[in-house]
């Protein structure tokens, strides 16, 4: 049986993060293609971590900067290693190459971390976005080192090609995936009159989400509440710490609700999802869930990025605060426009996020890469060899030094 080894940065939490939900979708694709999937991770499990064994996935705890992984990978000899984010590729790829040289290396970027960081820095400093930063040096190097890279956003796919000259055959675009036979809820979407209030949702440990909650509280919500004094906004998310909980204010209609066990069923109770994100990257799981719940979204440009084609809308896109507030109030009070948007959700999902289409695209790439590695033309070009030599050596000897230090303590 073909073997896929996944090295996770974290154990998947599909109820709390879009990254966890997406990871399970990717693993399902490989399982359906006949792979035995082994998920490894050096992190700790949380109360939200899914039990992968229930999905016929083998779980194995591994250690960071420890030679025990060398023997494990030598015995396992997986056909493919899938790295969850570039940091795990840095930490483990040299070990895989040393001990299982025929293994294919795939990186799931989740989102481009250097782009998210660049946007955060630009927001804080009030400058233009400069994505040629230190994080980009590391992440782009990892992308070059891998045989294939899974990219979640069309925007990021284009950025890698146009600004960093990544060969297109090293990339495959796989967004969130929609299966109409696997909806997260069996409920029919509620109508305009059956819904009330606004909702905001997202893991509060994720900095773009945390920033957007404060932005809503301080800049946007007072204006909305002033014009709609009887309407509330309910804030949901895992890991809401004291700094979030202290924002709870019944008089202001700003209600902290905590963790939503089923995000789609929760979103179906509300008339509009507020997503005024000011920085970030990748696709937004909250917007994808809102499509399932047929709940239109008031989005910033960042929140909407890569989610729709040019002719579609599912709410509106607006960055200016005053215009955002005006459009929120208008849509909240317009049943005809709201219903038109709500009714469009299914066609958007089917046209943009088809599980079968993107699963085929991913699986089509893999045998071609494997065949390429097994021919006389499979030697990496000089640039890639040079990159591998220098960067892998750096991580290799740093890891060995840390391992020796840990063993001597």
Question: Characteristics of this structure?
Answer:
409 residues; alpha/beta; Rossmann fold; 2 domains; 13 strands; elongated
Please tell me about this protein's structure.
The protein is an alpha/beta fold and 409 residues long. The protein has two domains: 2-177 and 354-408, 3-Layer(aba) Sandwich (Rossmann fold), CATH 3.40.50.2000; 198-352, Glycogen Phosphorylase B (Rossmann fold), CATH 3.40.50.2000. 47% of the residues lie in helices and 14% in strands. The chain has 16 helices and 13 strands. The strands form two sheets. A seven-stranded parallel beta sheet has the order 3-2-1-4-5-6-7, with helices on both faces. A six-stranded parallel beta sheet has the order 10-9-8-11-12-13, with helices on both faces. Helix 3 packs parallel to helix 5. The mean pLDDT is 91.
